């Protein structure tokens, strides 16, 4: 079966006295309209997409047996009725779980429940995801509580475009209390006096305005609390821990401006904390006991952040005082406050730690976890209440050890196990080997953390092993490369080494690790990934031609650059919702993300130097007449972040120019979002399983 061909309609663009041609520019026409309503996809393009999916199905036809086996195998590792650890809010315990017997309409979405005063009490289902999702191929939702716990916010997206329809319901009667549905970005909070504060999307899909709705009123009369005029800034809102204040955060990736006011004000009068300044970051945490803000900020060149404090009555930056000094190399990942305690998460030497500070004595201590080489740890308040009785909740896992949830008493320093991940089909961590190694970057400036997992007895350090390398490393986002996943075991058990890494572009090595791979230094991300592959080969974990690399979204830039410039390393390259047309996106000011993305990649519209630099790594314009490895792409028509057309353009250009017969397949989903299918089993069956089957087929392991 031959792959489908897409009609060319060449369009030339001229910038900085340089002409570039796009054969498929027409695919972008009415993109935002199609995202809003995928049914608007023109029939000829829909027919082409159908042919791509048929071509992919044809290629994977001989993997049907292994796909069924993989689904059964992975599902067998997932507890059908997995229960969350209950969280207390005043007199109620809140939790969620899935139905045990999963059918076509059951067990796909969680049930949100609560019990009054005791976990032995009668269960009250306050939101039934299975029931609510009926008749919807895609279903994403968010819920929230009123302060009296009698009413519930319900926000629903049934298309995958991240546009939510929001209503308020009476929890007991299920009666809808809003006169008309409210269109939101999904960012909605319930405050005092039955006020609803919510964020609105602009016509270019930018979260730009905060509104207030009085329950019972017509949404047409809703009050505008804040509106952001700068197209490069996105807006969000949230409540302080004790529900007293509403925060309005307007930000770029590395620049913040925060306003706040008391939620019950009849006419809100937001107060500015610190006027925006390029690359000045800060966030707020309120401590009611002494009426002060704790501020996490990079003020005074604190690259890895410091903690400052100020009175709520004098919140301006001129009144900020140092609470915890900046320590270069120790990145403060975040903090939160409960009654009597400040908790911060830090990363130092690529290891994560939790540090607790007594706000009366100012003494601090670390929460210690020992015995694992590659582990992941995180902390959160143990209750929705501000007063959690000295208790915080900690999650812990390693590459080979199932996740655990603990309650930690900050006063007694005692850890209490609340939940241990159950693997119904069984799991023996002693059968696996985990390792953390460091690769030196090509320029010698940094070490790069790499984690590896394999099954004992199946790996020889002779370069023969197939390797699956997962990566991302953009926007300062640091992938969790050391936590447990039941998913990767299916490949590991078949002789693969599972590899994860965080190169520059992430903040794994401190914030400077990220900042030094932006704009005109972005290619350090790609060079570092090559250094990772070289290290794996040098240590004889694998060899050229035995590597499959996988990433998504902005990770598409990395995959695109690597397969264009170093195709010999790969058996295959797998990319979901890939960002491939960087230069065309950044030259189109009408796209919703272009302006805010300038902070990351620079503006080719304003600078010839930036234009020339992006052209050096742009995946679409980097395609060459050469041999390519096997390629697997997936996307979604309704994806509001990365245009579905980007992967379509790229694969058609590669098919035309490549000098080999390796198939390129595309799986395009009409009923999905940027994150793929919405239900837990659909996500597994439609997204992950075909990808794993494709990987196994590359190494002729799909028949076993």
Care to describe what's here?
With 704 residues, the protein is α+β, with helices and mostly antiparallel strands. Among the domains are: 136-278, Methylamine Dehydrogenase, Chain H (7 Propeller), CATH 2.130.10; 281-425, Prolyl oligopeptidase, N-terminal domain (Methylamine Dehydrogenase, Chain H); 435-543, Alpha/Beta hydrolase fold, catalytic domain (Rossmann fold). The chain is 19% helix and 33% strand. It has 13 helices and 38 strands. The strands form nine sheets. Strands 31-32-34-33-35-36-37-38 form an eight-stranded mixed β-sheet, sandwiched between helices. Strands 3-4-5-6 form a four-stranded antiparallel β-sheet. Strand 33, helix 5 (489-492) and strand 34 (497-501) form a beta-alpha-beta unit. Helix 3 (64-76) crosses helix 13 and helix 7 packs across helix 8 (555-565). The longest helix has 19 residues, at 680-698. It starts with 10 loop residues before the first strand and ends in a 6-residue tail after the last helix. The mean pLDDT is 95.
């Amino acid at each position: 079966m031959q792959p489908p061909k897409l009609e060319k309609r060449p369009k030339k663009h001229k910038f900085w006295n340089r002409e570039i041609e796009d054969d498929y520019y027409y695919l972008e026409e009415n993109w935002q309209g199609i995202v809003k309503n995928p049914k608007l996809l023109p029939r000829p393009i829909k027919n082409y997409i159908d042919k791509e999916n048929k071509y992919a199905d044809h290629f994977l036809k001989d993997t049907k047996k292994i796909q069924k086996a993989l689904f059964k195998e992975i599902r067998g590792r997932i507890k059908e009725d997995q229960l969350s650890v209950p969280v207390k809010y005043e007199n109620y315990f809140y939790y969620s779980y899935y139905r045990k017997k999963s059918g076509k309409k059951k067990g796909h979405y969680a049930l949100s429940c609560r019990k009054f005063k005791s976990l032995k009490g009668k269960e009250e289902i306050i939101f039934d995801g299975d029931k609510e999702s009926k008749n919807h191929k895609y279903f994403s939702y968010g819920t929230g509580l009123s302060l009296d716990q009698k009413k519930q916010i319900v926000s629903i997206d049934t298309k995958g475009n991240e546009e939510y329809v929001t209503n308020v319901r009476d929890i007991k009667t299920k009666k809808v209390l809003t006169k008309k549905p409210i269109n939101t970005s999904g960012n909605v909070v319930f405050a005092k006096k039955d006020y609803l504060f919510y964020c609105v999307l602009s016509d270019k899909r930018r979260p730009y305005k905060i509104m207030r709705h009085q329950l019972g009123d017509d949404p047409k009369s809703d009050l505008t609390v804040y509106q952001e005029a700068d197209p490069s800034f996105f807006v969000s809102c949230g409540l302080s821990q004790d529900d007293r204040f509403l925060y309005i955060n307007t930000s770029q990736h590395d620049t913040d401006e925060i306003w706040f006011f008391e939620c019950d004000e009849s006419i809100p009068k937001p107060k500015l904390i610190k006027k925006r300044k390029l690359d000045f970051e800060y966030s707020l945490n309120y401590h009611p006991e002494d009426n002060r803000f704790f501020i996490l900020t990079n003020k005074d060149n604190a690259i890895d952040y410091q903690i400052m404090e100020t009175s709520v009555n004098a919140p301006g930056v001129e009144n900020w005082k140092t609470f915890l000094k900046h320590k270069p190399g120790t990145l403060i990942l975040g903090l939160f406050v409960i009654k009597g305690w400040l908790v911060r998460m830090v990363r130092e030497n690529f290891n994560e730690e939790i540090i607790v500070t007594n706000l009366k004595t100012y003494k601090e201590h670390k929460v210690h976890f020992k015995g694992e080489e590659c582990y992941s740890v995180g902390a959160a308040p143990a209750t929705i209440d501000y007063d959690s009785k000295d208790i915080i909740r900690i999650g812990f896992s390693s590459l080979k050890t199932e996740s655990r949830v603990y309650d930690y008493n900050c006063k007694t320093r005692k850890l209490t196990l609340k939940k241990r991940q159950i693997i119904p089909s069984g799991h023996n961590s002693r059968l696996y080997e985990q390792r953390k190694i460091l690769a030196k970057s090509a320029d010698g400036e940094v070490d790069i953390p790499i984690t590896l997992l394999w099954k004992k007895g199946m790996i020889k350090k002779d370069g023969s092993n197939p390797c699956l390398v997962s990566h991302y490393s953009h926007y300062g986002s640091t992938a969790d490369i050391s936590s447990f996943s039941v998913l990767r075991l299916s490949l590991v058990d078949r002789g693969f080494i599972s590899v994860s890494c965080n190169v520059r572009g992430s903040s794994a090595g401190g914030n400077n690790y990220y900042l030094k791979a932006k704009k005109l230094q972005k290619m350090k991300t790609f060079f570092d990934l090559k250094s990772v592959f070289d290290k794996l080969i040098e240590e004889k974990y694998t060899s050229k031609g035995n590597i499959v690399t996988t990433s998504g979204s902005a990770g598409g830039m990395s995959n695109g650059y690597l397969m264009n410039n170093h195709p010999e390393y790969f058996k295959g390259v797998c990319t979901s919702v890939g960002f491939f047309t960087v230069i065309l996106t950044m030259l189109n000011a009408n796209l919703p993300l272009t302006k805010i993305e300038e902070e990351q990649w620079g503006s080719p519209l304003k600078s010839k130097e930036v234009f020339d630099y992006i052209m050096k790594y742009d995946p679409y314009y980097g395609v060459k007449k050469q041999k390519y490895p096997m390629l697997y792409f997936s996307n979604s028509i309704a994806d509001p972040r990365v245009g579905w057309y980007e992967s379509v353009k790229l694969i058609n250009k590669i098919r035309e120019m490549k000098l080999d017969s390796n198939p390129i397949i595309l799986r395009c989903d009409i009923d999905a979002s940027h994150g793929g299918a919405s239900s837990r089993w659909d996500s597994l069956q439609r997204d992950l399983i075909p990808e794993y089957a494709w990987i196994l087929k590359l190494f002729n392991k799909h028949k076993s």
